[in-house]
Write a structure and sequence with these properties.
There is one protein chain. The protein is mainly alpha-helical. It has two domains: 42 residues, no CATH class; 40 residues, no CATH class. The chain is 61% helix and 0% strand. The protein has six helices and no strands. The longest helix has 17 residues.
Length: 98
Amino acid sequence: MKITEMESGKAGGPQQDPASSILPEEFRANLHQPKARRAKTSREEAIEVAMKAMEEVPDVREDVVADLKARIESGQYKVAGEDVADMMIRRMKADRIR
């Protein structure tokens, strides 16, 4: 049985943090710092900005819903069955890719 370097660290040999060899340098610098003291990376800051922006977007866009509702009620919004079937198939294929 072959013992890897990581396993040999468990047996009392020199220990190397596996995360330090696979993480980008910007993450390695903060790896062992307490969360309150470590500096945020540019990626973390960008994620925070994006998350805040997403919180401000409403779950339901009332203006779009109202417009569609009015068009449906007036008979101006019609969708062919073939279009619905085509979109269902596209959605199914896209879901399989994920």
